Amino acid sequence: MSDEQAAPRALNPLEAREVNRPQPGHVLCNLADIPDGATKAFNFGKGFEQYKMFVLRRGDALFSYANDCPHVHGPLDWRPGEFLTEDNAFIICAMHGAIFQIEDGRCVAGPCHGHYLSAVPVAVVDGRIVVVER
Ligand code: FES
């Protein structure tokens, strides 16, 4: 059988999630829906193929990442939509306690030290938070 006739390869779970990732131009919500200092989670698709992400707001700045810890690829939030340490200074993974910088998603403590959260670039367009090109 030639390569052209081979059956399509099944996607692994991480690849399957990417299929549900929102595309550039997708409107997530209004900026006003996320108060200053708050986070908001978004889920696309269902089951194991669900793509999860979240947006943090700090004044006019937005930080957006996949809700997918680089340690073992579990969700980060310790309660639905809750991603921050008690002092709101860092992102924390509820699974094994990895700590990430808000500004760049770099893990600064825990089992995936030095690894990064996967950024989901967003911009504010006409008062709405929109996914933009990577
Ligand atoms: S899954 Fe996040 S620290 Fe282990």
Question: Which helices and strands, and how do they pair?
Answer:
Blueprint: H1 13-19, E1 27-30, E2 39-44, E3 51-58, E4 61-66, E5 90-92, E6 99-101, E7 107-109, E8 122-125, E9 128-131
Antiparallel strand pairs: 1-9, 2-3, 3-4, 5-6, 6-7, 8-9
The structure holds FE2/S2 (inorganic) cluster (FES).
Mean pLDDT equals: 93
Could you say what the CATH architecture is? 3-layer Sandwich
CATH class equals: Mainly Beta
- Write down the oligomeric state: single chain
- Principal-axis shape equals globular
Secondary-structure element string: HEEEEEEEEE
Number of E-state strands? 9
Distinct ligands? FE2/S2 (inorganic) cluster
Q: Could you say what the CATH topology is called? A: Rieske Iron-sulfur Protein
The number of helical runs is 1
What gap, in angstroms, lies between the N and C termini?
Answer: 37 Å
Helical coverage, percent range: under 10%
Name the features.
single chain, 134 residues, mainly beta, Rieske Iron-sulfur Protein, three-stranded antiparallel β-sheet, 1 helix, 31% strand, binds FE2/S2 (inorganic) cluster
Describe this structure in words.
This protein is mainly β and 134 residues long. It has a single domain (24-131), classed as Rieske Iron-sulfur Protein (3-layer Sandwich), CATH 2.102.10.10. The protein is 5% helix and 31% strand. It contains 1 helix and 9 strands; from the N terminus they run H-E-E-E-E-E-E-E-E-E. The protein has one helix at 13-19; strands at 27-30, 39-44, 51-58, 61-66, 90-92, 99-101, 107-109, 122-125, 128-131. The strands form 3 sheets. It has a 3-stranded antiparallel beta sheet, with no helix packed on it. Strands 2-3-4 form a 3-stranded antiparallel beta sheet. Strands 5-6-7 form a 3-stranded antiparallel beta sheet, with no helix packed on it. Strand 2 and strand 3 form a beta hairpin. The longest helix is centred in the N-terminal third of the chain and has 7 residues, at 13-19. The mean pLDDT is 93. Residues 69, 71-72, 74, 93, 95-96, 98, 110-111 line the site of FE2/S2 (inorganic) cluster (FES).
